Give the backbone structure.
Amino acid sequence: MSGQACTAADVLVIFGITGDLAKKMTFRALYHLERRRMLQGPVVGVARDEWSAAGLRDHARRAVEDTVEMIDEQVFQRFAERLAMVSGDFGDPKTYDRVARAIEGRRSPVFYMEIPPSLFGRVVEGLAGAGLIERARVVVESPSATTWRRPGP
């Protein structure tokens, strides 16, 4: 097994953080990790939507409130402090430059794709073009048959 596989992630970058999957599942899961003090490092959201970090935190709060029985305010505050936002088009190299600045100094990023499969290649190419994948892991959220259908007859 390589050293890469044993290295703990020091930043989680979520492409598509403003989407439905993040709202219904990801924020809840991250909140629970924070509650158990298992979430390490910042969480950087990346989306085409022009959101501020404060807007992302508000969105996360609503998502957690909708999916968790009762919020522990101290836990949510710790979680919210981890959140940062990068907005931009996934086809624009400048977006990946902004991602690089947001994770500067981090050595073992995890890039989590909560985006349509048609964008996976574009995002990985953008990450590679910005020199971000050498020590990184890329995780692809596999769409279920009920949420994604191959185009055509």
Q: What stands out?
A: Confidence is low (pLDDT under 50) at residues 145-153. Strands lie at 11-15, 43-47, 83-87, 109-113, 137-140.
